Amino acid sequence: MSTSDNNSSRSQSLLTNQNIILASIGWGVLALLYFLLFSAKVPGTDGVESRADWYVMGTNIFEALAYLGAGVLCLRNWQSPQIVSSRNVWLAIAIGMLSYFLGGIFFGYTELILDEEPDVSIGDVFFVLSYISLGVGMILAVASRRINLEKWQWVIVSAIAVFGSLLAWWISMQHAAPSEPLATILNWFYVVSDVILLIIATTLLLAFWGGRVAQSWRMIAAAAFSLYIADMWFKYAQGPNYQSGEILEVFWVFSGVLFGMGAVLEHDASLSRTRRERGRKRA
Q1: Domain that holds residue 216
Q2: Is 248 exposed, middle or buried (0-12, 13-18, 19+ CB in 10 A)?
Q3: Total number of domains constituting the chain
Q4: Is 267 in contact with 80 (CB distance < 8 Å)?
Q5: pTM of the model
Q6: Is 132 exposed, middle or buried (0-12, 13-18, 19+ CB in 10 A)?
Q7: Which residue positions in the chain have pLDDT lower than 70?
């Protein structure tokens, strides 16, 4: 066996689904510790408290790699012919993850390198695409199976929809409307998108409850909840003294990690199902 074959075999043995899950959990824990240990503001030379640029850069790296990894893992599901769910579902989610990754890169570049905080930037193009793609993917996931929720489950979905909508509306009312019309439109687009994703996530969580394959969609639902928490905090905290890196922003990292874990669990369950079917055919 050649050296290249040995290296390929070794890399494949390391990149097992179990190892990817462990690495994802580790990434989330490291991110949490990073935010907890270094998010405190320190006085600057002008006496104004702020966070160090290296810390903010680190939060961007944690977030970017989480969404990039999730995008790659979702693309793997899209390319797999054995995947249980529709491959279009994972393609849409992959586009959403990679778009969020690019949006975060442009946002970090504008904030750290250009030292600007515009109401609208090129990063918003990718964030909008991300929400649309995630919405399409999660709606396709719901549509691919017959939703037969019980009355009490519909009550839970309705309650969370009302609570999520009221919270988003209340937070949006705490700040003055942006001066640019496009910024106002984008603000409400993000608010409505967050609420829609929250409702779909709740429906997915209840509809796919139970069974090994359902584990992946519980992770996807948790990822959408995490995205909602981070977005709502960002909207609430925005103001003249806002600085990136608040502790609740770690939920953006958690969201990317959970989307990736959901993709891995779906891939693992699909492979296991294929092996069982082949075993029954041989028997």
Answers
A1: 3-282
A2: middle
A3: 1
A4: yes
A5: 0.89
A6: middle
A7: 1-13, 44-47, 145-146, 176-178, 210-213, 240, 273-283
